[in-house]
């Protein structure tokens, strides 16, 4: 794998979607699928699908299509779904607590092992069986538990400072829920979640469907 | 605008990102930018950017680049940021409450006017100044307030039934936080939020950066 060609981030961002669709196909016992059929289901062009999957050596066969199970497994391997990441949540407000309860992450290999806040009313309480600890303890916790990922669900103004602190503590990846495109001059990987992007697309699609094509 | 060519959803999904980047440029008084510079900042190829923006008639000039402010305004118009959508949240658990507090939505034209739940411990409480109402009241509320959008933050198994109900009540768009790709045979637009997709991309990037290029 050391010689693996670097795959563009745009392709990588589509892989979890392929993975979900293939998982749905397996659930209904569909064992093979053409790029054309996959295209119809996913709303991506067939040529885009072939191009995407070719980046990984291609798993399809002319005239046969894709074997759903091997493609599913292969994409899972590429995404590293069997990896295990030790994860902490920083900010135990509503969003932090919601994420702590989201069982889907654990199934994907992201194990929440700590939740932190500075609010004395939250510290000591439990969220999904994990005791909320005070932020004073985080340096020690991250070091002794070799934490990989920090999920940041803190107010906007606290985000850059905390992100810097995480980089300094050796965190490898940050999942940022503050509405800002956080960029830092560190090796640490940052994924910014922009919930309002998805809401804006919803707004656009409603206007398109209800304003221009009355039925 | 009635004759507007249908733009592919892939392009539409990139627009909120252009919109955010241009907004950042305006904040630091950058008034024009080439597709090449925009490309470097956004990590999208320059040809992709030109292609995307050409879908809307193109706003760039050879040798000059894009006027940041007009491009920002134009993309805002396309996305309909001046639209107003009456929105309710169904499910006042942690995720529902987190979204009710997320001021960014209001700025984008999504006005939260109601929050609903069936849990007697939540009904009657206030979240961001809005009283949580019992689900028994939702039919009447949606009709009399002409609600456009419902945000669903309910458990997995309740999602399909509630989505059907919303379609029946004339809701135009659904923003679904349950980890399923909800599809219904209705006109209603559905945007599914897949938080774990973004987390999987984070996992991939960490592996790529830390396993293969040790430094």
Question: How would you explain this protein's 3D organization?
Answer:
The structure is a homodimer of 215-residue chains. By secondary structure, chain A is an alpha/beta fold. Chain A has two domains: 9-79, Winged helix-like DNA-binding domain superfamily/Winged helix DNA-binding domain (Arc Repressor Mutant, subunit A), CATH 1.10.10; 85-196, Rossmann fold. Helices cover 44% and strands 19% of the residues of chain A. Chain A contains nine helices and ten strands. Chain A has helices spanning 9-27, 35-42, 46-54, 68-79, 94-100, 103-107, 138-145, 159-168, 195-211; strands at 32-33, 60-61, 65-67, 85-90, 110-117, 126-127, 130-134, 149-152, 173-176, 189-192. In chain A, strands 6-7-5-4-8-9-10 form a seven-stranded mixed sheet, sandwiched between helices. Chain A has a three-stranded antiparallel sheet with strand order 1-3-2. In chain A, strand 2 (60-61) and strand 3 form a beta hairpin. In chain A, helix 1 packs across helix 4 (68-79) and helix 2 (35-42) packs across helix 3. Chain A is elongated and about 60 Å long. The mean pLDDT of chain A is 87. The interface between A and B is large, with 66 and 66 residues.
